[in-house]
């Protein structure tokens, strides 16, 4: 509630998604956001979406103790800014990420804005309007108003593409590298695209769903492995002369996927892990013996925004293709259902 900041005197309301419990997401009236701090911006959300991580609550794996707003992916148009905001102005189209960050503290300057000393989680974005704290540090304006067909790709940049990119950077993907991607959700698919952009020579996508395999190939995968677990590991070894991949992108976050990533990496290789871990238990001795380097965590998407926005505008990348369903925000319940039932990889919502 503390970030709702509504102008209660006017009792202005807008609509946004609220989760009440497992399988129960509703569109409800919520207080209209307004400027609270001088560094805030209010943006009218043009597109938002449902994240794979939203399903942890939807499926009851993460407990929902009380009703709370949902959504952390957004692009939109600035409606209002606080007195201190200098880098964005009303009318501009902006992309932000799931953590607001000052972009000036020592952690941000090191490139890890998702661990900003003043970070604020953006958790209310499946809505018509949102307040963005630290707008100068958080938001990046596009060079011009994007054509409608670019909006899905810009939205993807705000989370899944930024996260896939970070996975590839964390796994130290370099020109000529052999890369394996564990996970064929939106982040894994974007990881394939990132590996291609960073010059990987061989990209092995691990996927057993035909439409996802197809998109992975279009994004740059040279090989697809449908097997999982030990069999999946054996296939990756087979494809890499028995050695394993130089770089592995772990984009799921389960114990099985993490082990699969560890065992698919060549000795001394690198893993970028961006799947939010659930009950992951990394075997210490195995990790020690493997000489593998691990880097992961919530992606510092802000670091990559200017570059990724440019790549979208230049037509180099089209990560918006991970959205295979578009619904009005009013049908948010159906969006969660479709993703839960795997009828959709990722659903774009239009307020
Ligand atoms: Zn910071």
UniProtKB/TrEMBL annotation:
Residues 21-349 form the Enoyl reductase (ER) domain. Its cofactor is Zn(2+). InterPro entries: ADH-like_C, ADH-like_N, ADH_Zn_CS, ER, GroES-like_sf, NAD(P)-bd_dom_sf. Keywords: Metal-binding, Oxidoreductase, Zinc. PANTHER family: DEHYDROGENASE, ZINC-CONTAINING, PUTATIVE (AFU_ORTHOLOGUE AFUA_2G02810)-RELATED, ZINC-TYPE ALCOHOL DEHYDROGENASE-LIKE. Belongs to the zinc-containing alcohol dehydrogenase family. This is Zinc-dependent alcohol dehydrogenase family protein. It comes from Actinocorallia libanotica.
């Amino acid at each position: 509630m503390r970030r709702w900041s509504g102008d209660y005197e006017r009792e202005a309301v807008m609509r946004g998604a609220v989760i009440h419990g497992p399988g129960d997401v509703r569109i409800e009236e919520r207080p209209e956001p307004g400027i609270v701090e001088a560094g805030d911006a209010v943006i009218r959300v043009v597109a938002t979406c449902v994240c794979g991580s939203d399903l942890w609550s939807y499926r009851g794996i993460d407990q929902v103790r009380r009703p709370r707003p949902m959504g952390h992916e957004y692009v939109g148009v600035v409606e209002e800014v606080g007195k201190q905001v200098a880098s964005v102005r009303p009318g501009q189209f902006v992309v932000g990420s799931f953590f607001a960050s000052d972009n000036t503290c020592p952690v941000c300057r090191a490139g890890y804005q998702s661990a900003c000393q003043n970070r604020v989680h953006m958790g209310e974005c499946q809505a018509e309007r949102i307040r963005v704290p630290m707008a100068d540090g958080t938001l990046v304006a596009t060079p011009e108003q994007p054509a409608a067909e670019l909006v899905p790709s810009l939205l993807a940049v705000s989370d899944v593409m930024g996260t896939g990119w970070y996975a590839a950077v964390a796994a130290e993907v370099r020109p000529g590298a052999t890369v394996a991607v564990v996970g064929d959700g939106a982040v894994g698919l974007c990881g394939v695209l990132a590996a291609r952009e960073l010059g990987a020579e061989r990209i092995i996508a691990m996927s057993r769903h035909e439409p996802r395999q197809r998109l992975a190939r279009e994004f740059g995968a040279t090989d697809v492995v449908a097997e999982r677990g030990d069999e999946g590991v054996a296939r990756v070894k087979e494809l890499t002369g028995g050695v394993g991949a130089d770089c592995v992108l772990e984009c799921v976050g389960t114990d099985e996927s993490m082990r699969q990533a560890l065992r698919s990496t060549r000795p001394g290789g690198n893993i970028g892990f961006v799947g939010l871990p659930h009950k992951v238990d990394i075997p210490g001795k195995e990790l020690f013996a493997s000489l593998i380097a691990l880097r992961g965590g919530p992606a510092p998407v802000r670091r990559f925004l200017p570059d990724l926005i440019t790549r979208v505008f230049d037509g180099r990348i089209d990560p918006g293709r991970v959205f295979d369903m578009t619904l009005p925000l009013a049908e948010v319940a159906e969006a969660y259902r479709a993703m839960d039932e795997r009828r959709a990889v990722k659903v774009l919502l239009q307020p």
